[in-house]
Amino acid sequence: MSSNWSSIARRIRVPLGFAMAVLYMGLAKPTLKSLLLGSVLVGLGIGIRAVASGHVQKNEALATSGPYAYTRNPLYLGSMVLASGFALAARSGWILGALAIMFAAIYIPVIRSEEDFLRQRFPEFEAYAARVPRLLPRLRTPEAVSGSFSWDLYRKHREYNAILGCALVTAALVAKLLWLP
Fold first, then answer.
1. How many whole angstroms separate alpha carbon 7 and alpha carbon 163?
2. What is the pLDDT of residues 144-166, one digit of tens each?
3. pTM for the full model?
4. Would the CA dihedral through 57, 147, 74, 26 be positive or negative?
5. Is there a contact between 154 and 66 (Cβ–Cβ < 8 Å)?
6. List of long-range contacts for 100-108, beta carbons under 8 Å, 24+ apart
7. Were both Cys, which of 70, 74, 96, 154 would link to 87 (CB 3.0–4.6 Å)?
8. All domains of the chain, ordered by start, with CATH?
9. How far apart are CA 58 and CA 35, in angstroms?
């Protein structure tokens, strides 16, 4: 059952995200202060995702450098921070609740499924998982790990689309604030 849900969750997470965006715009009640505060978290989330995307070589090597030295899932962590920023900007408890449910129902099973794949693909994953937390980053400095940020990987993963998407949502919130009080 868990394996089946993980498979379904993987397939529906993007379309569900678009449906969430429509709900979000309907429920959002931004103020200038909420937009400014939320934008700080959105920017932090984009930064985490950007740095992580420049370290990951999907299905080729186990990423352990950069933000992967602090958390096994910096892309999901960045998405959570980013989503929290948009929830703050929207000033809606309903949005915050919907995001929490979506994360628990969709992203936790996807993370577990991806970790099962990594366990099978990379024998060194077990040792990595034993020293690096799944989602919330460790605060102590990790041991030196080889690897550096790659702009080629960043472009390959098209992480710049996250910036464009965030800019569009922010512009829509500003428009809603200005023209739909």
1. 27
2. 677 788 898 899 999 999 999 99
3. 0.86
4. negative
5. no
6. 102/16, 102/20, 105/9, 106/9, 106/12, 106/13, 106/16, 107/9, 107/13, 107/76, 107/79
7. 96
8. 2-179 (1.20.120)
9. 34
